[in-house]
Design goal:
The protein is an alpha+beta fold and 465 residues long. The chain folds into three domains: 123 residues, no CATH class; 136 residues, PAS domain (Beta-Lactamase, 2-Layer Sandwich), CATH 3.30.450.20; 167 residues, Hypothetical protein af1432 (Orthogonal Bundle). Helix content is 55%, strand content 10%. The protein is flat.
């Protein structure tokens, strides 16, 4: 059987199909991992935060007042309702990201609970038919297994919830009386519409890329396959390299016939895929960068810290004679040097007093956590070492690996100096800001023990300019 001299059982057809499948595999796999990592990473962070907020909020509720609230609409006028209401409103002020905070308790009907106290008992005053949350109002919780589990232990939704209150992500925690008996569940909701829209956008992007990949790969595959007369070992090897993720590999064929043209097209394809991957990495980098800045924004003492450290780092590298391309890459790595702190509780990061031994252990783990987060971005091991080793010292007393002198990447040592200087010359809760001269003096005092002398010298020259 032939279609315009293109035989369905020919070698050309097999080459075309292999080419299409290879491209689809690369595009599909790349989009799959990007989608899952981006969504799951952000989702896990928010879920953990909600769980912590719900647990802490449940402990601050007056259980006696909550138990005494009349479970009817007039209950909002009771003194007990007002006591709990004031507590919930204060919790909401402390956590401005919360959209709703409320309490519910069980009824005699399986899967049906009733509201006790909600700071917003009527969600839409202009819409009498809208959902309400007055004391005693019923709510079907059988749709939400995590809410049901919240009666026994703190938990949070494992997926976005779409109900009459909108698109939300919720955390739950049991409220227990003095005897340890659960009398109600406290729920906290954040508006998840932006996450919901982002998920839809990424899914649409994945579909678009796959469709585009199908069209392009079919066109290129048919055109290339008609030029192929026999298997070429170098092209097979090139396909294997691309499939393994080595997009920098080039097929070296100098022939000027059809095989040469095929090799040139193959190399162009690899370059395009490499560029596409770079853009995906850049997209993910921006996401992580935003998360780091959000983390810093919660503490006035660290706001802008990563930006300043990255600027210092780039200038030091240029002053030491490193190529501009390496200095730029190092700047990006330095921008995210504290990304591992996303895995540390805010109560530890923002603690005003001395840290306990366990809390110090958590702090010391943040370089390793950061390395794992950024591994999909920085394939360059030397740049990954910046994240892992920027708290190492020349005398081997740093963390997490206790490296010393030349065992530490020169780039990590540069970030170490910039990081220390910015910490010294910025406000901190435990000490006043040091002047530039005082900061330089401390850098000099740390030469040979904490800092590389050549880097300190280069940094001083930068500061003098």
């Amino acid at each position: 059987m032939k279609i315009k001299n293109f035989r369905l059982n020919s070698f050309q057809t097999k080459v075309t199909l292999a080419f299409v499948l290879c491209l689809l595999f690369i595009a599909g796999l790349g989009n799959f991992f990007l989608y899952n990592y981006s969504i799951n990473s952000q989702f896990s962070q928010i879920r953990e935060k909600l769980l912590v907020i719900a647990r802490n909020a449940a402990l601050s509720v007056d259980t006696q007042a909550l138990s005494a609230v009349p479970l009817n609409h007039d209950g909002i006028n009771s003194q007990e309702y007002k006591v709990v209401l004031k507590q919930l409103e204060k919790l909401k002020e402390i956590n401005p990201s919360l959209k709703y905070i409320y309490t519910l308790t069980k009824t005699d009907q399986p899967g049906i609970w009733q509201f006790i106290v909600d700071p917003n008992p009527i969600s839409t005053r202009n819409n009498p038919q809208g959902p309400t949350a007055f004391p005693g109002d019923k709510y079907d919780v059988s749709r939400f297994p995590e809410m049901v589990s919240g009666y026994m232990r703190p938990t949070a939704d494992r997926e976005l919830v779409v109900d009459e209150w909108g698109v939300t992500l919720s955390g739950y925690a049991p409220i227990r009386d003095a005897q340890g008996k659960t009398i109600a569940v406290l729920g906290v909701d954040i508006d998840a519409n932006s996450i919901y829209q982002m998920q839809k956008a990424i899914k649409l992007h994945v579909v678009f890329v796959l469709i585009f990949a199908v069209v392009i790969s079919l066109v290129l595959g048919i055109w290339i396959s008609r030029k192929v007369t026999k298997p070429v070992a170098k092209l097979v090897e090139g396909t294997r390299k691309i499939a393994s993720g080595d997009l920098s590999y080039k097929v070296e064929i100098e022939a000027k016939d059809e095989i040469g043209e095929l090799a040139a097209s193959f190399n162009n394809m690899a370059s395009s895929l490499s560029e596409a991957r770079k853009k995906l990495h850049e997209y993910f980098y921006r996401i992580v960068q935003t998360m780091v800045r959000s983390l810093e924004a919660k503490d006035s003492y660290t706001r802008g810290h990563s930006d300043r450290v990255s600027e210092y780092t780039e200038k030091i590298a240029l002053e030491m004679g490193f190529p501009a391309s390496e200095a730029e890459l190092l700047k990006k790595a330095a921008q995210l040097h504290d990304v591992g702190k996303l895995g540390i509780r805010e109560s530890v990061l923002n603690k005003k007093g001395l840290l306990s031994e366990d809390e110090w252990d958590l702090i010391h783990k943040h370089p390793v956590v950061g390395e794992e987060i950024l591994r999909p971005i920085f394939l360059d091991q030397e740049m990954l070492s910046v994240i892992r080793s920027h708290h190492e010292r020349c005398d081997g007393k740093g963390y997490p690996d206790g490296l010393k002198e030349d065992e530490i990447s020169i780039f990590a040592q540069i970030v170490c100096v910039a990081d220390a200087y910015d910490a010294m010359t910025s406000d901190r809760a435990y000490r006043p800001t040091l002047s530039m001269q005082e900061g330089i003096a401390r850098l000099k005092n740390g030469v040979g023990t904490q800092f590389n002398p050549k880097i300190v010298e280069a940094f001083i020259r930068v500061l003098s300019k």
